[in-house]
Amino acid sequence: MFSFKMDQIPYPGPPLLFHIRMSILFLILWITDFIMFLIAVENTLANGVGGMVLFASEVCVLSFYHGFISTYSAVWYIGCQRHEHNLEISALCV
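^ that's the sequence the OP posted. Answer follows.
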């Protein structure tokens, strides 16, 4: 339905140094996330679940839904703009 253009580098693609840097960055972020997860689990087991944890999880869920709705509505709007000339499709976008 939509044809988005992607910025791609032609063959042979990004250099090896790019892949090494991205792999190191991914590893650093993964280790950081894992350590933070262990700290959160240890703190929860030691102190129990408090109001802050419940509030934080609710904020995460609401922000996920907000991001999903924002993205979906933006894609819908772009699709309607691209099909303005077609009356059958633009009637569906109203």
